[in-house]
Amino acid sequence: MSTTIIETSAAAPSSARSASHIPVFVASAAFFLSGLDVLIVNLALPTISQELGGGVSAQQWVVDGYTLPFAALLLTAGGLADRFGAKRMFGIGCALFLASSVICTFAVSMPMLIAGRCLMGVGAAMFLPSSMSVIRENYPDPKEQAVAMGYWGLGGAVAGVTGPILGGVLTPIHWSLVFGINIPVCVLILALLPRLSASQRKETPFDWPGQILALLALGGVVGGLIEGGELGFVSPTVIGLLAFGLAALAAFLFVERRATHPMMPLHLLRSYDMRVSLAIGLAFMISWYGTVFLCTSLLQNEYGLSPLVCGLIFVPSAVCGAIGNLSAPRIANMFGTRVPVLAGLALMILGLAAMAALGTHLGAVLVGVFSGIVGLGCSFVTPPVSALVLRCVDPHESGIAGAMFNTSRQIGSTLGIAIFGSLVASLPTFDAAMRVSFLTAAAMLTLVLAASTRLDR
């Protein structure tokens, strides 16, 4: 059966699409929600446990119940977006996120809350890759698309900083508000959904073997990384999960190479720009989430600061993130993709090296300064690389391309916390763990920077 590309409905003229800010607003709001719910719940966990019961294991599942299906289903959701239309899958994902937020807000037991969190992860996986496709479909002009990707990245950057702050503010009122805050945002997104342009969809047979193997591979790998951060990477459980995930990944690649209509066409990886973009997404998320994890541990455990104060110390990184996400697309339009990417990676390396040199002698003020520098570097990288990923593929493959990029980012965030956490547990002092972790991240980014010098301008 040949692949057929059809429109889901009549598309609006390009000029009308270009004049509207609604598509970029809903896409960035969705990215904000998906990132917010990774972090906002952490400060509420002790209070939730006191009211709903459950020990440390239950608290862990409140977190992992969201992150595991989120990461494991991204590739599947990206393939579905290309098959059934990004706009449709975006709307279904937002509706699931809304329903799950209601369940979590009114949860009366820990199992009910965990079930809601799992459904929330499914919804986030469905709308995040589709949000990139929404931008591509509504802003076909490359320069407008680059600027729109800047606002999209801003949503994720703001979520990364405001999550702990909102968690610290809302939890004392009632823990349910950390989930209830999602509800009006989801309602607004769904109300604006009809204003988006129509999506293309690809009429191809459903790749059941590929979908199942992708789910098993990502579930095993991500589950192993999550448990590795808790149990250590020599634990038989962790080794078993990682081995299972890697075996499923090998089978997935074998099947996709021979499939007539693969869910993830492997020819997408022939592009050097695509391969480097995925490596960048993995590396800078390892570095950023590892930085937030270590700096938060330093501020709370070593300096004895409250969670709210810790969140406020990261405000400079939010400001820097806003500056970077809004300015990087314009720099890319003027000088090419390579310039903001190299500048951003260099800033991240500078900030990480400075923190490695000072270790636990950083002090709260310098934590804010250097995490701001790292955050600024991240925000310079995200929009141009995201736009580059979309330029590497045909329009009808933008869903799976976005899913591949976001999967690398999600695995990077999980890997950063797991690796840095393992170093904290294994090295004799927290100071040594900080220095080794930050130096390792800086070295990894240096390799990615070298590879990025050959990116398409």
User: Unreliable stretches, pLDDT < 50, 5 or more residues?
Assistant: 1-19
Distance between the termini: 37 Å
- What structural class should be given to the helix and strand makeup? mainly alpha
Alpha-carbon Rg, integer: 21 Å
> What's the CATH C level of the largest domain?
Mainly Alpha
- With strands numbered from the N-terminus, the spatial order across the biggest sheet is 1-2
Query: Could you state the order of secondary-structure elements as H and E?
Result: EHHHHHHHHHHEHHHHHHHHH
Proportion of residues in helical segments: over 70%
Tally of domains: 3
CATH architecture of the largest domain: Up-down Bundle
Would you count the extended β strands for me? 2
Tell me the name of the CATH homologous superfamily of the largest domain. Answer: MFS general substrate transporter like domains
Approximate shape: globular
| Count of discrete alpha- or pi-helical segments spanning 4 or more residues | 19
**Relative strand content:** under 5%
Task: Explain this structure.
Pfam families: MFS_1 (PF07690). The chain is mainly alpha-helical and 457 residues long. Helix 4 (56-72) runs antiparallel to helix 18 (398-426) and helix 11 (208-231) packs parallel to helix 18 (398-426). It starts with a strand and ends in a 5-residue tail after the last helix. Helix content is 79%, strand content 2%. The chain has helices at residues 14-19, 22-39, 45-52, 56-72, 74-84, 86-105, 110-138, 142-170, 177-180, 182-192, 208-231, 236-258, 272-302, 307-313, 315-335, 338-358, 364-391, 398-426, 430-452, and strands at 4-7, 200-203. It has three domains: 19-199, Growth Hormone, Chain: A; 208-262; 267-457, Growth Hormone, Chain: A.
